[in-house]
Amino acid sequence: MNKKMPRLVAALGAVATIAFLITPAAAQTSEAKEKPPMYSYVGNWSIPRAQWAEMDKNTASSQKILDKALSSGTLVGYGNDTNLVHVIDGPTHDEWWSALSMAGIINVLEQFYQSGTTTAPVLAGAGKHWDEIYVSRNYNWHAGSYKNVYTHVSSYKLKPDSPDDAVERLSSNVMVPFFEKLLGDGAIHEYEIDTEAIHTDTPGTFWVLYIAANAEGLDKVNSALEQTLKTNPLMGQAFGSMVDFTAHRDYLMRTNVTFK
Fold first, then answer.
1. Cβ proximity of 21 and 234 under 8 Å
2. Going by C-beta distance under 8 Å and a sequence separation of 6 or more, which residues neighbour residue 255?
3. Nearest 5 degrees, angle CA 105-CA 102-CA 194?
4. How far apart are the C-alpha atoms of 249 and 153, rounded to whole Å?
5. How many CB atoms lie under 10 A from the CB of residue 15?
6. How many CB atoms lie within 10 A of CB 22?
7. Which residues contact 180 (CB under 8 A, 6 or more apart)?
8. Radius of gyration, alpha carbons of the chain
9. What phi and psi values does residue 217 have, to the nearest 5 degrees?
10. Strands 128-141 and 38-46
11. For residues 40 and 134, is the Cβ–Cβ distance under 8 A?
12. What is the DSSP-derived secondary structure letter of residue 165?
């Protein structure tokens, strides 16, 4: 047998595996039922350290509006985050809510405007403020309320030659199976893969978010990722074939969250 044959077969197998991973999910299986898009509104603030206690009080005052919207079915979840890894000009706090329609998140936003909470002194005195609206078609969560858990967010930028449905391919074939196992194990309470619904950032950027059940959950996710890449290296290759890692950034927050 030609000594080059085993390496050739291995190489062809690698190409075939990567091709499978990046083939549109719809062409691979019809078993997974498509979820409705989930929209999330995020308000970000840069609050002076001396005002952090006031920010906590202001966040607590939002509870009534958000709880009512959740119980009525307008929202499917809401929460707030305190940034743990600070960067120059970055946010210190955020508040967010999610719905299965754009109308859901905007109607709740209008309630905040009407209530006057958006002009609270601590918010008016913020160093910087900006909003974002995301949409996700790949997500899942554990229903319930969780205090002082941890949200990890990774941002990625697609390569210019990536296919138009690159995020969906990577989500369905790589990220969703990975996070579903962690969700089932209880290491995380929620995950989602987001793109912007209202584009205020560079096109081609997407975000991978998970909420760890506790600090140990962060280690469990990292360990699972290392093991996955070790046993299935072609998954990493498939991801790398579409993503420009020079633009990659991570964020870590302490979170209070409620999901319906």
1. yes
2. 79, 80, 81, 82, 146, 148, 149, 150, 151, 211
3. 90
4. 8
5. 12
6. 20
7. 140
8. 20
9. -60, -30
10. antiparallel
11. yes
12. T
Return the residue matching tokens 């044959």.
Answer: 5
User: How do residues 70-116 score in pLDDT, each as one tens digit?
Assistant: 999 999 999 999 999 999 999 999 999 999 999 999 999 999 999 88
Domains in the chain, start-ordered, CATH in brackets?
36-259 (3.30.70.100)
SS3 sequence, 183-203?
Answer: HHHCCEEEEEEEEEEECCCCC
DSSP 175: I
> For residue range 215-245, what is the model confidence (pLDDT) as tens digits?
999 999 999 999 999 998 888 888 899 999 9
* C-alpha to C-alpha distances, 16 to 19, 28, 104, 160, nearest whole angstrom: 5, 13, 43, 23
Residue 5 has which token pair?
Answer: 């044959």
Where helices occur in the chain by DSSP H, the ranges are: 4-22, 25-28, 52-61, 63-72, 102-115, 121-124, 166-170, 176-185, 215-231, 233-242
Q: Of 167, 190, 154, which is closest to residue 79 (Cα–Cα)? A: 190
